[in-house]
Amino acid sequence: MGGGGREQDSRIISSDHDLDEWTFTLTGFTPVPPFQSPGGEGGAAGTALDSLEVQVLGGHGEVLGAYSAWNAELTRLDEDRRQITCATALLPHRDAQPVWELWRQGGPQQKNLWTELPSGRRAGWLQVVALSAFATSGAARPKTPTSEIVLNGEHIVDLDSFYLAIGEAVNGPGGYFGWNLDSLTDCLHGGWGARAAPRIRWENFTDTQRHLTQSTLDSLLSVISDRTSEVELR
Q1: Pairwise CA distance, residues 152 & 160, whole Å
Q2: Which domains are present in the chain?
Q3: Gene3D superfamilies recorded for this chain (predicted)?
Q4: How far apart are CA 174 and CA 172, in angstroms?
Q5: Distance in angstroms (rounded) separating the CA atoms of residues 151 and 164
Q6: Each residue of 165-208: pLDDT tens digit?
Q7: Could you count the other beta carbons within 10 Å of the beta carbon of residue 183?
Q8: Please, which residues have CB within 8 angstroms of residue 132's CB and are 6 or more apart in sequence?
């Protein structure tokens, strides 16, 4: 955990929701300075922190991804448990933990492993894909950006699977290329594994049509058409 604590083996074990403010209990917390100093954790009153970053660490201590929060307060409950009250725009998804474990082992080595998850349970995988890409500044992207994206629509049954499919089409297994319309727009401007305004060949498009609503397809195609040199639907 950034900002003064180590959270390598910690787990979020409970949470209570009140509007945009959340309270978490962390277990397995190992204090480091300044929290080791007398009174460093503020006792029952808590310690105010401007911002807080909960990092997901790999086996060698490398940062795999991070969840950010602000207006945070840390309170000591007992020897190895701390309570954090904070505001955050993104909570760890309930299905993200096993995916982070896969990333700790080096990440997926082949495409479409996420298709083994049922529709509606892929958001956790997508969250890990995005946060790991942000944490590594896209280090896993190909050295030479592609000018053509070949997107296979066979497994696209919802928005999450669309972003997972296009991420792997551009950047290989576990690859990222947006996780909502705004970030997809950013990626199509270049710098995330594809050249600006690439050509897109959407194969098995009829498979996608059977699953996505027309309004969802229209939104995706509007963004793609405006920011690519050509779109071919096959």
Answers
A1: 14
A2: 5-87 (no CATH), 97-233 (3.30.370.10)
A3: Barstar-like
A4: 6
A5: 10
A6: 999 999 999 999 999 999 999 999 998 999 999 999 999 999 99
A7: 16
A8: 64, 65, 103, 107, 174, 176
